[in-house]
Amino acid sequence: MAVTTGLHASVPLRVTDEDTAAHFRSGDVPVLATPRLVALCEEAACRALAPKLSTGQTSVGLRVQLDHLAPSAVGSSVTAEATLEKMEGRRLTFTVKVTNNDSVVCAGFITRVIVDRDAFIAKAR
Description:
single chain, alpha+beta, Thiol Ester Dehydrase, Chain A, five-stranded antiparallel sheet, 3 helices, about 20% helix, globular
């Protein structure tokens, strides 16, 4: 496994009606939903890690710690960034943040675990 700290990826998003709290039923306001922010940060962490995984490996989410700090309106553009900061065996901790221009929309940590894809799926059955 060629996974090392410092791996980084970013994912842009233009906020649409389908990204809002009202759409996700996590509130009734037409702004970027917290669950959508979680998914965006997870996507950035996965993008950073995926090219370094061995055949048959994947990563699964273990822990999400995010502070949602500012609203983002429909039509605005945000970017999620993830950087691998810490490795403990198969457990990987990423710092994540989402920005809207120079403003921080959310920040926190995501922990993922590297697993054998087939064994994980079999265990889920």
